[in-house]
Amino acid sequence: MAENNDTKQQQQQILEEFREMVLAEKNLTPRVEDAFLLKFLRIWNFDKNKSLVLKQNYYKLRCDYSHLYKNFSLSSPQMQALRQNNMATILPQPDQHGRLISVVRLGNWDTTLSNFDDLFVSLHMTLEVIIEDNLQAQLNGIVSIIDFEGISFQHVKQFGPANINRTITLIERSMPIWFHQFHFVNDNAMFKIIYTLLLPFLTKSMRERIFLHGRNLESLYKHVNRDNLPQELGGLQPPLDNSALVEKLYEYEEYLQKLNSFGYKQGI
């Protein structure tokens, strides 16, 4: 929608109608402030019906896995373990299209210190902070680079069908942010097992947004400029450093805990 007075009036009307739709949901204690509702409307270009489904999915996911969020703490040993070795971070500058770049190095995940539940909650909380803190990221979306260097059978064992399904539900159907591309690099035999497990859960849209580069990083650079990437990926930026992301998460820890007060009282 073009940003003129008529459009702004239309958007305001849609926002009010959307708020009424959300408030009409049974057994739901929702957030209804303008800024939060607009996140769900923007992602669907102010289609309030599609936005409502996304909003329902957002709260249903939290309801289905409420036991994982109840005692969430960034200071827990499991969360601290996930922050070691720069396993996951957001790069300080976006790509050439203004999209946020996330880098996950699965081989750096110590599965003896944290399990898939911990990884899932960490991903979810990071996305919550991104959509709350970074409007440009919500508008432009995310490009995710997943580095499989060093993964072992211990990692493969974490990727059961239920874990894969809930992760795809989170990133594809439950959060008001768009993952434009997924780039898989530095794969090995263990990756092939994970990818085989992953395939049945992928929608046609997701399959079209996944790029398998193997160890050919030149192939990656066709999608994400090398200028924007860290040294670990052959880029021209400094080495990976997740300290800024960790600091941002701690800044929002109280906010993340307050999110537990919203949602469905019972399943829908």
Automatic annotation (TrEMBL):
InterPro entries: CRAL-TRIO_dom, CRAL-TRIO_dom_sf, CRAL/TRIO_N_dom_sf. Transmembrane segments: none annotated. Residues 78-241 form the CRAL-TRIO domain. GO terms for cellular component: membrane. This is CRAL-TRIO domain-containing protein. It comes from Strigamia maritima. GO terms for molecular function: phosphatidylinositol bisphosphate binding. Coiled coil: none annotated. SMART domains: SEC14.
